[in-house]
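TA notes, week 10

Several of you asked for a full example with nothing omitted. So below is the full record: structure tokens for the whole chain, then the designed sequence directly under it. When grading your own attempts, check the secondary structure regions first.
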């Protein structure tokens, strides 16, 4: 699949950017992960996930312990879907179209950033899911384009701490506070209601 579509090309031509875009594609874009790519991805505590299905577009933050995203092949990676709000915005889009964009970025002053675009599928096989602490399902991504991006505008934001809610071995994260609020409590999935309140879903 081409890296640029007609819209990209129209703006490149309008602002005399086609030559630079083509050079960046030739020299920076790649289709298989390097060892540096693997290290960057597998030490990341978060990334941003973009999905779309028709007119429904979503961008989501995905966080976890470093290593929660795993490079599984020369152009494939997997990451866990953790407990959430039951809307399934990202995974629902993936089920409809499969097209995804991932943005890995460091705010530690190094300015590292990587874009990955490709096709995603969902796997709920219990044997695989069990290998990712806290996972409900897995998302498998096959990369089409891997592009280390310019760090020019990335701020340095050192000193952040991982969320206490991030799954990890031998640790039980606290329940989300919002699950106890009026708009959510009576509508939680049955498993949550039984665990939190000892009762079945009212719906």
């Amino acid at each position: 699949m081409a890296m640029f579509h007609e819209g990209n090309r129209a703006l490149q031509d309008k602002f005399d950017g086609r030559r630079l875009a083509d050079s960046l594609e030739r020299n920076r874009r790649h289709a298989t992960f390097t060892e540096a790519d693997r290290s960057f991805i597998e030490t990341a505590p978060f990334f941003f996930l973009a999905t779309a299905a028709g007119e429904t577009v979503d961008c989501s933050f995905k966080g976890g312990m470093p290593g929660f995203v795993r490079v599984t092949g020369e152009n494939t990676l997997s990451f866990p879907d953790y407990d959430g709000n039951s809307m399934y915005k990202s995974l629902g889009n993936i089920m409809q179209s499969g097209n995804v964009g991932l943005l890995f970025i460091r705010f530690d002053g190094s300015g590292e950033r990587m874009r990955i675009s490709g096709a995603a599928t969902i796997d709920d096989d219990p044997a695989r899911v069990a290998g990712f602490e806290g996972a409900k399902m897995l998302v498998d991504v096959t990369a089409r384009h891997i592009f280390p991006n310019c760090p020019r505008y990335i701020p340095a934001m050192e000193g952040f701490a991982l969320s206490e809610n991030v799954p990890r071995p031998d640790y039980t994260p606290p329940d989300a506070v919002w699950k106890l609020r009026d708009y959510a409590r009576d509508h939680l999935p049955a498993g949550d209601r039984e665990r939190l309140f000892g009762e079945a879903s009212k719906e």
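The mean pLDDT is 93. Use that as a sanity check on your answer.
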